[in-house]
Write a structure and sequence with these properties.
Has apparently no steroid dehydrogenase activity. Controls bile acid (BA) and lipid metabolism in response to nutritional cues. InterPro entries: HSDL2, NAD(P)-bd_dom_sf, SCP2_sterol-bd_dom, SCP2_sterol-bd_dom_sf, SDR_fam. It is found in: Mitochondrion; Peroxisome. Belongs to the short-chain dehydrogenases/reductases (SDR) family. The protein has 345 residues and is an alpha/beta fold. Strand 1, helix 1 and strand 2 form a beta-alpha-beta unit. Helix 1 packs parallel to helix 2, helix 1 crosses helix 6 and helix 6 crosses helix 7.
Length: 345
């Protein structure tokens, strides 16, 4: 873990989403230096499904050695943001550090405020365990995640740097390696267990990919399962699978090496499969003849949108429209295949 140095004592940190998860972890890390924390988040009343409010977070921050200002803020409301900033200035003076969720703004703001305020973006290399991840990923997902502490340490590392360090897009593990951290198992929920690569990074580390491919997440099924007799199907889902089948080749199968099972709800739904392990590949209605590497559950409407490029799989997953069980690396691999098929769909 990255040790606290006291460098942030007296600094004011304005953190959106600080009532729980990553935001609160960053707040507590800064609070241990004696920083002032503005907790800008929506939750003011206890939610049985999502622990933490701006007030409970404030108690933890002050217990850790910082000063807290809880502010009810919905970041979609510009007036609420302005009000929170005014309260922060009134209570602590001008704030010197901010956490944004808008990485696309980094380059523009870094140039605009050059020499005055440093603007950087921070992103995780792997999935981070939060309440949101539990809701979207389901039971057992935490074993494939790292703790929020890794983001807090990475943010703290950025906060320690001078204002000239600006306009950077930073991966948590990379900056901590520069700090001398070598043992990243300390950040894992389950040390030694394969980790899910972050959904929004274009490249994933080969070592993680190899571990994920060799790890069985789904429970064992029967070794042999007879292929169900083909049933005549019609509708948008059947047409989508017909086009997918026409797009298959030995090269696609070789590059993917996975069997996908789709549990679709709604009209033309049911169980479907996409076999990208057998020669030439295969699709069909019913369960695959061999164990599925990935099981995806969603509505038929969202399925058609996803394969036609109107709904990105990562966004479908993060919004709860898509539930995934199994090998997450292979699930991500399917997205690349879908991108190749979008023009035909």
């Amino acid at each position: 873990m990255l040790p606290n140095t006291g460098r942030l004592a007296g600094c004011t940190v304005f953190i959106t989403g600080a009532s729980r998860g990553i935001g609160k972890a960053i707040a507590l890390k800064a609070a241990r230096d004696g920083a002032n924390i503005v907790i800008a988040a929506k939750t003011t009343h206890v939610n049985p499904k999502l622990p933490g409010t701006i007030f409970t977070a404030a108690e933890e921050i002050e217990a850790a050695g910082g000063k807290a200002l809880p502010c009810a803020v919905d970041v979609r409301d510009e007036q609420q943001i302005s009000n929170a900033v005014e309260k922060a200035v009134e209570r602590f003076g001008a704030y010197t550090i901010a956490k944004y969720g808008m990485s696309m703004c980094v380059l523009g703001m870094a140039e605009e405020f050059k020499g005055e305020i440093a603007v950087n973006a921070l992103w995780p290399k792997t999935a981070i365990h939060t309440a949101a991840m539990d809701m979207l990923g389901g039971s057992g997902i935490e074993s494939q995640c790292r703790k929020v502490d890794i983001i807090a340490d990475a943010a703290y590392s950025i906060f320690k740097k001078p204002k000239s360090f600006t306009g950077n897009f930073i991966i948590d593990e990379n900056i901590l390696r520069e700090e001398g951290i070598k043992n990243f198992d300390i950040y894992a929920i389950k040390p030694g267990h394969p980790l899910i690569p972050d959904f929004f990074l274009d490249e994933h580390p080969d070592t993680i990919t190899k571990k994920m491919e060799s790890h069985d997440v789904l429970p064992e099924l029967k070794e042999e399962k007879s292929q169900p007799p083909p049933k005549p199907r019609s509708g948008a889902v059947a047409e989508t699978f017909r086009i997918v089948k026409d797009s298959l080749s030995d090269d696609v199968v070789k590059a993917t090496q996975a069997i996908y099972q789709f549990e679709l709800s709604g009209e033309d739904g049911g169980t479907w499969f996409l076999d990208l392990k057998s020669k030439g590949g295969n699709v069909g209605y019913g369960e695959p003849s061999d164990q599925a590497d990935v099981v995806m559950s969603m509505s038929t409407d969202d399925f058609v949108k996803m394969f036609s490029g109107k709904l990105k799989p990562t966004m479908a997953f993060m919004s709860g429209k898509l539930k995934i069980k199994g090998n997450m690396t292979l699930a991500i691999r399917l997205e690349k295949l879908m991108n190749q098929m979008n023009a035909k769909l």
